[in-house]
Amino acid sequence: MVEVTVTPRSSLADRPVRVQVRGLSPSQLVTLRAWLTDEQGERFQARAFFHADGAGEVDPGRHAAAGGSYAGVWPMGLLWSLQPDTLFRRLVKRDVAGSPFLVHLEVFDGPQLVTAPQDRPLASCEAERWYVGPGVQRVPIREGRVRGALYLPPGPGPFPGVIDLFGGAGGLIEFRAGLLASRGLAVLALAFFAYDDLPRTLAQLDLEYFEEAAELLLRHPKVRGPGLGVIGVSKGAEVALAMATFLPQVVATVWINGLAFLHGNPLVYKDLRIPPIPYCTERVLFTETGALDNSGVFADPRDPAYGASAIPTEKIRGKVLFVVGEDDRSVNSKLFAQLAMARMPPESCRLLSYPGAGHLIEPPGSPLCSISSIRGTPRPVLWGGTAQPHAKAQEHSWQEIIQFLELHLGPAATMKL
């Protein structure tokens, strides 16, 4: 009797699981396939080919995949190599608090390059991948101008507070907030345009909006002050760096593949206005797949003409962790990190730089998204990255991010998950 199992069967999406197949013949060649369907009905799948060991077992954490979606020994390879059946789709959990991703694992005899409806697996099982732990509460936020969702760990608190920001597509993305809350942090997933009654497009970065959000979070009875953290990716990292520069409430900032100069939109705060560097849209390139390679649309920030657009990071009084994918094809994020750090005291910043990692560095186990369609662009956008080094970068950076936030905000709540 062939059996495939995932241990634990229900887990948080950033935690490792163990996949095992038993009951095969020694050296039997099999296909191990993983697939899930997202909330839009899009299927993502991965497959790897294995020879069973002498005991008739396959364990991706001990045995090398000969080929398929990846090769080599990768315990989580079937999850981080998931790819959409439809090109340019990105796997994003929308209903973070209400349901898990249901991952199907199947074992087939022989090397199966494609799966037809009539193909029957030797064995199958299902696993749940959650983005919130038991007892984590989601609270919609619609107070003053602030729009978002607050994720609170179970218990009375108080918990360290963090604001979570995403990038230029706008809207409200909550999956990272749910996972961080499951680590014992109180996390406000904050929208700043293209959501609810916020502006549909981003005309300017009004730092007073983000200051209002920081004050709202710190007023919450379950949030421990006096300082808070901010984590942002892409345009959200640009905002996070500006918050760290001008808002004294921000004491710990995680900047992921962003900018250190204002681009496209000015930043305004009280009497301050930082002018943007205009995008050089005439330098965009079309890839062979028809995607937009935007890496050329950013002018060289070292040009003296753009000095007034720099975020004055020398004013930062807290700590900043810069996370860079060296294969980021959206922006030269390593250059911007280095320029920001050059203005800061060395003890106040740290750089994590990952060869082969792309723009969208997410929690571990997340599939690499190297190209995807996003709101506001006429074609899909190239993000970059190579699957295996990107997966390593996500595993390492996630642990570093959590340790950084706990170090500078105080210990998070202890949760049994």
Describe it for me?
- The protein is α/β, with parallel strands linked by helices.
- It is 17% helix and 30% strand.
- The chain has helices spanning 77-80, 175-181, 207-219, 235-246, 333-342, 387-409, and strands spanning 3-7, 10-12, 18-22, 29-37, 43-51, 67-68, 83-84, 101-109, 123-130, 137-143, 146-152, 159-165, 186-191, 205-206, 223-233, 250-256, 267-269, 272-274, 285-286, 292-293, 319-325, 349-354, 371-372, 381-382.
- The strands form six sheets. It has an eight-stranded mixed sheet, sandwiched between helices.
- Strand 10 (137-143) and strand 11 form a beta hairpin.
- The longest helix has 23 residues, at 387-409.
- It is globular.
- The two termini are 32 Å apart.
- 48% of the residues are buried.
- The mean pLDDT is 96.
Short description:
The protein is built from 6 helices and 24 strands. The chain is α/β, with parallel strands linked by helices. Strands 10-11-13-12-15-16-21-22 form an 8-stranded mixed beta sheet, sandwiched between helices. Strands 2, 4, 5, 6, 7, 8 and 9 form a 7-stranded mixed beta sheet that branches.
